[in-house]
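Input set for joint prediction.
Command: fold jointly, output tokens.
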Amino acid sequence: MPLLSFENLSIGYDNNIILDNLNISIEEGDYIAIVGENGAGKSTLLKTMLGLIPPINGKVTFSNGLKRSEIGYLPQQTLAQRDFPASVYEVVLSGCLGRKGLRPFYTKEDKELASANILKMGLKGFEKRCYRELSGGQQQRVLLARALCSSNKILVLDEPVTGLDPKVTNQLYEVIESLNKEGITIIMISHDLSVLKFANKILHIGRETFFGDKESYFQSNNYKNLLMKGDEK
Amino acid sequence: MGEFFETIISYFEFPFVRYAFIVGILIALCSSLLGVTLVLKRFSFIGDGLSHMAFCTMAVAAVVGLTNNMILSLPITIFAAIILLRSSTNAKIKGDAAVAMLAVGSLAIGYLLMNLFPTSSNISADVCTTLFGSTSILTLSLADVITCIVLSIITILFFVFFYNKIFAVTFDESFARGTGVKTNLYNLLIAVITAIIIVLAMNLVGSLLISALIIFPALSAMRIFKSFKSVTICSAILSVSCTALGILTSILAGTPVGPTIVAADIVVFLAFLLVGFILSRIRKAA
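tokens >
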């Protein structure tokens, strides 16, 4: 039974359709890499999935007991965060907020969950450190810990390795892979093609949409075109 | 020293001094609490835009002959705040331009109205009072004070109950929305509370200086402190002490209240800037 599926989904802004008629189902435990050119609609697809923008047509269905608010999300960093005074602990704890509804304060369970995820992401001892003073890789692990506080089922990542050097990028991929091995479904947008090594399924969006397992993707025209584009750069 | 305290105590026997002190402290507290969020959301100038709007509505209230101008200025300022905060996400005219337009436009209309329909013989003194709050804090009636106390309590309760939500909406709105936090609702509430604070603060520092009350304590605290909670607490303490100091100084030295408070805020900001600089040097050396 799929965890979530797109049925005849068309996405875009203000009735401008970027991507039309998408039919996909995502199974529990999948590791899906979303690739495609700039402007193909990768981020728009994520935002539609999260309910940040409404779909133009079709629908996103959650099943298997998954609720929309139970998606762990790692967005692209914003400008405001660069000089935001916030401790690592405050940021991670805010991941628990989504399911609290109107209840104003964090409970003991929330705080324990935050501490456990800080430990899991190898950030023990960093709780009181200021988020903006951490390195890029550490910041991403803080945001991962926050996403884990909001979900232990599915993580959606939007370009998590942008601006990281190759070594830190690999470390982050290893962390994400270990989460996938624990049974967490991963959906990741990436410009960095080394993600293909870890994913089990690929969603390529653009003029031709491809969705399927990695082996058949490597044989497809989409992949060859993408490689050629990469060479030209 | 004893003489000094005796002078202060003798001043506090006047009810208008006590009123000014209570109202001043409450406004300082409220404005600094929300200031942290407004600065971080890049809305520092919203205070300016809205206070000019409030100036305009007060001019209208005076012309129409309303005795309690808050009846008019509060709802209109709240309305303007909602429009401004909403427009920053999806609008033809972008955030900063919209604020600037509103600020200068309403200032001009307000002054024009006061001139066309003068309600007293000394217009420039009236305008000066509304812009710089020079004496209005010392002429508060008991009703003003009670209104101010009630609205301040609402603001503080709002802030305490929604503190975690305010943090989430300020730090990362798309994450908060993606995980099911009703960010639009909280942005709306922040807008309403901002408007309330601004209408209240008109009495204390006048409409030109409100921004100072909102941004200086937050910016000072951010020089030294590194977490949202510590910045918020520090900014509240700074704001309240600067305001208390400013009111006392202005009573003793006979200076205008609003500018004196802002001057105290500036001195504290410079001190924190220096300390922050030294601390970062020490940390680098270590």
